[in-house]
Amino acid sequence: MKTRYDLRANIGGFQVNEKKSWEAPYTIVTRLNDVMYRIQKNPQAKMKIVHIDKLTPYQESHPNEGVT
């Protein structure tokens, strides 16, 4: 059952989706196993353990990009 669930799991990332809004950026501190990661927002923040499905790649937005 776990293997079947993991087939649809997200492969990696740096954002966390906990409450329908994205928090970013986080740093992956350690990979605990194939699907669980320990992440941290900044060096002073408490670490979180999250499933890979809750992570997505972080892309910094540039609000003035393309404006002349």
From TrEMBL:
It comes from the Eukaryota. InterPro entries: Integrase_p58-like_C (IPR054465). It holds the Pfam family Integrase_p58_C. Residues 25-57 form the Integrase p58-like C-terminal domain. This is Integrase p58-like C-terminal domain-containing protein.
